[in-house]
């Protein structure tokens, strides 16, 4: 190693040299952009996109296009929105930022948007002053019209803004230029938004923002180009199924609001708007260009601009880079390091990335080199982790000098707290360490696993997922298979119990190899069982069946022992629950009997797991018997579960899992007695709530998210028992409590299908109460809440019959609402929609038990509407259809109370 000082008088020149790297012309992409600018038609949409792999130079291209546009037309309205900044990915934050940029650069007034935004903001933060030091909105300039409005309305409820603003407007002669805007847009905005919820206003913000920009462009007869960079970042944290096309819907809406603007978007993938709107397939509107590697000519021009004058060296670098700008940057860094000590020579460069890496490392100080090696094992790091690794492995690098190490182009800053190393460099460094010291690889991964595992156990909230991902990644590489699976099982149970189902299910594929090795069979069975439980809670029933069957297969290979019998029983019982959800009722009965047999064969100590199995089997068998109107058998099942809970309490004392199942048994017993008008149902529901609360207070609580959701159902059942005439306040309070519980559960676990379905049920029943109390606007709101919950459940679990059936029932109940309001045509339309949705239930889930009962109720209600309208023939037709469906229901469940009662009533009515 040559002796050389740490700093040099020429260092600033080198830094300037690197910073002045020029963009090399991309002829085709540039021509496409200039053609789009020349050919832009004012009223025709035009979106130009450039996509390609990371490191290919898209951002540099975009900024070069921006520069060329500035030289060509300095008066054109333009700006760049970069989704690399996380806060720019939400519509409200993005439009605030665009507003500030365009006002600063082009003096554009966004009065309509400002007014809409302050209404949105105030509704979102009703208790916070808009002029508070920490909360002041960026556009509340003193002396501005909006600033004056806020001054006048600061302590006025939003609902009163409209009359107060009318009064204020009449006395603002100094804002004469604003009066025209007020009469055109301002008054309409207040009228439109004063009754909307914050999320509904946020959806409309693009329209107001676009209206202001459109007005400016028209007044100045100017054109506009808006660049959007790092488009793929919109999906950085939620690329999974369901929400993919929703994430950029607001961008598409903003584009659709502004046909006057040329939009230029850079990202790693093609834009998928045509998936939701086929009109975007037309290249007149959406023109997409793949950005490939830089040509040798462009690469050469770039290297010359960076001060590499040797043609031979440039040729070697270009061949090694394959036109990827990242490699070019890396080689320029290498060249600059060499140049600090001597004139770079041809033999010091190589045609392979690994040799370039070797050459690059030769000219680093030992602490820099060793620190980079250790950092390469992380996928990203914070300053805290950087210091931990430097200390743990004694690399010798100063804790405070991290900016000096992070100066290289292959290290990028992800956000304010995290850095990462380019994957190519990271892989190359790891390969080198593995070749030189394989034990060090194991040690680094072990240290990183311990670091993240400790963080995981001490952290909640946003960072918990990050720590789980990293602990999983490093643990898999650092631990033995059995130790890793044991760790995953323990942490996986915690994550499942707290509702993080998506995190778990996303890791099944990553465990495949570990689950097919010679690992402990019982341990593998427990992992499969954990995934089975997770998929069950997500509504992914096919995957759940696969996992439970795999678990059963593994457990059956283990030598018979008491613990194994309980595991076999629990898997059979849970598998039965999935079959119930899939409307495969015979299979469910068979599996519940198998579970009972496994429990009966148990000869060990009757512990918590034993009583849990016995109670769960009894409750689920009871629920299944209720579906087929086997009421006496169901009653016996529920009482057996309660009896088992009493035995468990005598032997074990208070245990949260037993308390939770006791609560569930009482809730189901109450539901059964409620069918027959038994007043003891109220006592059952109150007992259920008492046991749920006791379970949730317990220090040994398990499955807290599931227990909480079940408690919500007990409150909803209790609401059903109170009289709307004599106890309306109690009835409302119980419904509100149930819905609040579901909202809290879904905030923590948005993919919990059962909670979504329960929320939908509660919203429909609450809607019926609101109809009865003549609370019509509130009833319409409850309808929309129910529909949103059921549609989300169906999206996550398409084969679940319950949510589809209840969605149809929501439309049926809305028919009642319309009839009570005197809107006959709307009532008929809503009931017809209900029948269409019920047809989908039969098509998608033909064996669902209650479908004909639901259809019968809808036909009966439709017949009542026609009877009121004195359309006798149509009324009779639908009464007959209702009767036919009730009879079909009774063929499957002969004793079903509701269907039997409705059949008798209709037969008398038709006679």
From TrEMBL:
Biased composition (Basic and acidic residues): 13-24
Pfam families documented for this protein: TPR_8
Each TPR repeat, start to end: 808-841
UniProt-listed InterPro entries: P-loop_NTPase (IPR027417), TPR-like_helical_dom_sf (IPR011990), TPR_rpt (IPR019734), Ycf3 (IPR050498)
Annotated stretches, region: Disordered: 1-24
Sorted UniProt keywords: Repeat, TPR repeat
Keyword Repeat in annotation: yes
Domain of life (superkingdom): Bacteria
Protein name in the entry: Orc1-like AAA ATPase domain-containing protein
